[in-house]
Amino acid sequence: xxxxxxxIKLDFYTGKQMLRLTAILxxxxxxxxxxxxxxxxxxxxxxxxxxxxVGSVFSVHEKNHSDKLYGILPLTKSEMIxxxxxxxxxxxxxxxxxxxxxxFVMWQILGPDSLDTLSYWATIxxxxxxxxxxxxxxxxxxxxxxxxxxYVFTMVPMYIIAVLFLVLTKKTDLASSIxxxxxxxxxxxxxxxxxxVVGGLILLxxxxxxxxxIYTRKEI
Length: 220
Known about the structure:
By secondary structure, this protein is an all-alpha fold. The chain has helices at 2-23, 25-36, 39-64, 77-110, 117-145, 147-171, 174-177, 179-187, 191-215. The protein has one domain (2-215).
């Protein structure tokens, strides 16, 4: 466990500059939310940019060739992977907390008509589930092909998915087509974020297993 914590610290130390830069993207999320007059837009795009943030550590490692350090440090490949996923999870939790606070503040500023309670909590759940899905897809690909080779064809579809989902929920009768699901969560609002968090964690756990199978067979 101590060595896994050391791997997390190494990733934080390596990626701290990029974390500061990608955090600036939160301003863009706020602008999107204000233009669309929807706090949920700001919340979802915060999580989209959160995925960009957790992927940046691969870019820094590759640019500085610091990934070679793992070949000489007293870390197994499995411990390094566990550290990388826990690093991403910590960043993701920070982003979802920020997204929740941002959405609440914008909700108060834009007025009660801009959002309702169910949509607020559902966006938190969906935001984290999206984060788990996107990071869960991206990390094994980065381990396999490297960040430089895989970023564009990995992340562009993730951005498109997020935009299409938000457009569909606003411009179509998607809500009416899933009326029973909405009614269930209306009666059990507290379950919306719980389902999202649990779903996101399951996706990350499966992804970590896949990444471990890939990376333990790769030469550093």
